[in-house]
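Sorry to interrupt, but I need a hand with the structure work. Could you write out one complete protein record for me, on any chain you like? Could you add the entry underneath, on a fresh line?
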Amino acid sequence: MTLDRNKIKIVFIPFVLVSMGTILLYTMLRYQLGTKLGILPFEQELWNFWIPFYLPFISFWACLGKRVRILKLKSLKNKYISAHQALILLMVLAMSPPMILSQKYLDKVPHGLIEIDDFDEIKNHQKEKFFVINQFDVDKGSIVEGFSTREVMGGKYSRARKYFYVDMLYPFKNVSGVWYGIEYSKNINGKKDNKELKQVKETFYRTSKDSFISQNLKEVKYFEKLNNSYKRSRFLKAINKNRPLVNIDSQIILIPKMRDYKNRTGISLGWIFGSYVIGCVCVLIIIAIPKLDKRLLTKFNNN
């Protein structure tokens, strides 16, 4: 294991610059589209997870693909990926945590806490997410229920999982199209037989509904308005099933939050920077292991 000056200059420093640039540029784009303009298409899960996961692979391969070839790597037995592509993939995995954490942080932090007296005021704050409502009542006689499942297939090193979601809503009184919603979720081993799955679903649904009905609805610090997301689409599906005549796209779902607004992210900047430093150290160790390919190094320097 040697950390040659050429490895630092040709591979590691460009990796640091490209990874930092990718995170900053994507975060700025996301901030402008989502926070400033409020026009993010697609669901939040795509912007918070899938794009942050795949985007570094594109930027790393475009900027570092030729550079990593100066490292002499053993050929892989896998015919679908080369050793240098595998190295790029390891770099992506090292940068995925700070990339994903930064988007989850951005999703919460820029939005202020808006205090309102009337629900109609929410419609005047289309780009905002967090609200304090001084006085409110819900119509407990008009409960809306939704149940959905999602299955994640297992692989060689992981088991299949089934996710159950129970979405419960009350409409707020004295306003149309605004809902008090709570999500309940549970995941289990997907290999259970149908009889056992049915029993688990029925028990989970019953306990979730009982919990919602007995919920102290006034014990709320603030509300979070759901934007375009998988969670919101489930709530809207439940509303549409029970109220097929409503304009489903105009419905506003408010999720009660029980902890202080200042703790809304669950993620600090320290986590983001810490995961970034750890990722850089991991990449530094990885590139220190292989030897340099002198022929390709000379070719790279000449070009």
In short: The chain has a mean pLDDT of 86. The two ends are 27 Å apart (CA to CA). The longest helix spans residues 5-36. The chain is about 45% helix and 20% strand.
